[in-house]
Here is the input.
Amino acid sequence: MTDAVRIEKLDHVTVVTLDRADVRNAVDSDTARALHAAFVAFDADASARVAVFHGANGHFCAGWDLQFGARMAQQEGGQAVLSDLDFSARDAQPLGPMGPSRLLLAKPVIAAVSGAAVAGGMELALWCDMRVMDEDAYFGVYCRRFGVPLIDGGTVRLPRLVGMGHAMDLILTGRKVEAPEALQMGLANRVVPTGTAREAAITLAQQLCKFPQATMLADRESAYRQWDLPLGEALHQEWERGKHRIADGMQGAARFAGGAGRHGKF
Here is the structure.
């Protein structure tokens, strides 16, 4: 695995850090593959429950490394970047241009967003289940300026997350979206003081680790799988995924009756 991607394990939390300081954590092909491998390994790790995706050196990710792409194009022609990646949607663990963007993991990932999360970097943040932002961090489809398309889920996940009106505003204009607006439109889940996004995301991940995991993961998967289903089928799928967890719920009810978790206490 390239030195640009580091993995740290904190009990049940896995922290994946992207570290390419000279290009604001922009991603080239080797880095994309390393990120993909890191999250595939997290998903397969029975001891890991939640991942935190973090960018070092004050930035989350500035997107695809355009300087790398320009060198590739000069050396091997305009299709060089495309030919260097596997775009097979039928692959069980498909690789996206930015790495993990086409994976549907079985466990949650929280983005800790500092500084820039733009272009493909914004798409990586959208891939995560939740986004915790420093108050001076920002999103933006900055690739709009250069004619680089969104091909890591941006045109799919952004409308689903914030609605078509907000998505079209961001996709068409490429404008900067700062943390307060991102929170208001639902693009961010938490906004925290500058420099604390990583710590806050780890704290949130640790909270998720404490819940009954099988039920939480069944609910999470149902939410992801329901998008292309008619209402009746989606409700049936919810039942099929959730019915095996009813016994867990009864145990939880017994704990509640015994005084645990009253008045919304966790």
Summary: The two ends are 38 Å apart (CA to CA). The mean pLDDT is 88. DSSP finds eleven helices and nine strands in the chain.
